[in-house]
Design a protein that fits this description.
It comes from Pseudonocardia alaniniphila. This protein has six helices and three strands. By secondary structure, the chain is an alpha+beta fold. Helix 3 crosses helix 4.
């Protein structure tokens, strides 16, 4: 899991995962969205693939990259015992916002 956290620490890699969350994409499409060169995007994809966060599927000359959520499930399981810390705060925020909002007629 340390590798996953290390990989996720880089903002561009998180952005790639955000883009892949919607659907599989080609390197060129990711490069255009990120404003990076194809070699730069490919380097990030290689790191993500080595960490198991991304899978690649060859289709003729094209390479489709897609999210593999398995390592993220490990992170989610690790975070589970800490959720109470923000769940209580979110509940308090909701109560505060409800108290401050005008009553509906």
């Amino acid at each position: 899991m340390d590798v996953t956290f290390e990989v996720l620490a880089e903002p561009t890699r998180r952005r790639i995962l955000d883009l892949l969350r919607d659907r599989p994409r080609l390197v060129g499409e990711l490069s255009a969205e990120l404003g990076l060169s194809q070699p730069g995007t490919s380097k990030h994809l290689r790191v993500l693939r080595d960490a198991g966060l991304v899978k690649v599927r060859a289709e003729a000359q094209r390479r489709w990259y897609e999210l593999d959520p398995a390592p993220l499930a490990e992170v989610d399981a690790w975070l589970a015992p800490y959720r109470w810390m923000w769940a209580d705060r979110l509940d308090a925020l909701e109560r505060h916002l409800d108290a401050d909002s005008p009553e509906e007629s």
